[in-house]
Specification:
Helices cover 74% and strands 0% of the residues. The protein has 22 helices and no strands. α10 packs across α22.
Length: 422
């Protein structure tokens, strides 16, 4: 596509998309302005919330669209967007972070950790960074991200003040969740977008992607654990008081809701109805609950919805760019492009390219999941982990450049496994 054939609104959308990316990396500056106070402190605070960035610039795009083509065109464009993913991430994030689900996973991790010789707190940390992300292949990546992030927040992140530890842990978590969902064909958003088109089922994913991802996940978790095991062991908590026990029946009902929402993940009318029923159930059994993660889930949904709106007009340059790459160049190109787009959008656009080889398709998806931990916008579950953990970082903000550096080594390890010859 030539530049002359690109519409004005597509150019505006691309400029706003670039501004939103720069804004994402600039949130610490806005946070500093907010902390100074003044008349516009509220505005600076809003602009310092990463979860609000893409939603804000998506609103600017809609205003520009209405100004150029009328309000009807803006409404029509919104009606053509698919907001299933933001809705699903919101619902699954709230359900996965509910106390019965979280208690169950924590108990399972603790039981496995008890079988490992040495420090229990170190074993729990390692399992949280390895086993929980791999669960994303079955309960979906957003659910795995939410569980792992809450577990890390409630254990090591609350007890350890070392900022370097937190960024390296966050980088490993984001990368491991991004690659940990490829053991099946339905759990990772970038795989889900192309599995049907490419004819890939879960057996294919396990044979071509799964074992590589599992090895990389375990190695990433092991390296970070070995680097910080003394710090983790030294910060082991004292014995905590007992909480009210959650009945098995309540946990079972929560698991049914979780499974049902995952099963109907492509049918928003169904899973939203199930989610509302879940809200009612938690109110009926409030004594076994903690406050649900509604605000965090809404902010993450808003972030992803903004990405859907802005990303929907990037096809004009992104698809042609992907089509012109050889498989190996595509792998590295997809890894890099994922950091500044969304890996599910990237693979979807790649699936629209005609006449591609199996090697080209494999490198597209492998690169998209490899780069999924580099930034908060690279993978749909990342904003969920960001929202849960940001309060544990200095100033309540996560610096994007530090996250990028923390994810660099886990990304390189993932690349090494995905580029191994068959």
């Amino acid at each position: 596509m030539t530049l002359a054939s690109v519409s004005a609104i597509e150019l505006i959308a691309t400029v706003l998309f670039a501004i939103a990316i720069v804004h994402t990396f600039s949130v610490p500056a806005f946070a500093a302005l907010a902390h100074k106070g003044g008349r516009h402190a509220g505005l600076w605070h809003m602009l310092s919330e990463v979860e609000a960035v893409f939603g804000f610039w998506a609103f600017v795009l809609l205003v520009a669209m209405a100004g150029l083509s009328g309000a009807g065109a803006a409404v029509e464009y919104m009606d053509t967007r698919n907001f299933t993913e933001p809705l699903f991430v919101f619902a699954i994030m709230v359900i996965a972070a509910s106390r019965p689900i979280l208690n169950l996973v924590t108990q399972l991790v603790g039981a496995i950790a008890a079988l490992v010789p040495g420090s229990r707190s170190v074993a729990v940390y390692f399992l949280t960074l390895s086993v929980v992300p791999l669960l994303g292949s079955f309960i979906t990546e957003p659910a795995a991200m939410t569980l792992a992030a809450v577990m890390l927040r409630d254990t090591s992140f609350h007890r350890i003040e070392n900022t370097r530890f937190k960024y390296f842990t966050l980088g490993a978590l984001f990368v491991n969740v991004s690659i940990g969902g490829v053991l099946t064909s339905y759990a990772a958003p970038p795989v889900l977008m192309v599995a049907s088109t490419f004819g890939w089922d879960s057996a294919y994913m396990l044979a071509h992607f799964g074992w590589r991802a599992a090895c990389a996940v375990v190695l990433n978790a092991l390296i970070v654990t070995l680097c910080f095991h003394r710090l983790i062991r030294a910060s082991a908590p004292a014995a905590a008081g007992e909480e009210r026990r959650v009945p098995v029946s309540v946990t079972a009902v929560h698991l049914v809701f979780l499974a049902a929402v995952v099963l109907f993940a492509h049918h928003p009318a169904v899973f939203v109805g199930l989610f509302l029923l879940f809200i009612g159930y938690t109110e009926a059994y409030r004594k076994y609950q903690r406050p649900l993660m509604i605000k965090e889930g809404l902010m993450v949904g808003f972030f992803l919805a903004g990405l859907v709106v802005l990303g929907g007009l990037q096809k004009w340059w992104l698809q042609d760019l992907l089509a012109d790459m050889s498989p190996l160049v595509l792998y590295w190109g997809a890894t890099a492009l994922t950091a500044v787009t969304d890996n599910a959008a990237l693979t979807y656009l790649g699936s629209l390219v005609d006449g591609t080889s199996e090697a080209w398709r494999t490198m597209l998806v492998a690169g998209a999941v490899t780069g999924g931990g580099l930034t908060v916008i690279a993978n749909a579950p990342n904003p969920a982990g960001f929202a849960v953990l940001k309060g544990s970082f200095p100033g309540g903000t996560i610096t994007p450049v530090a996250l990028l550096l923390g994810a660099a080594l886990p990304t390189a390890i993932a690349a090494a496994f995905f580029l191994l010859p068959v």
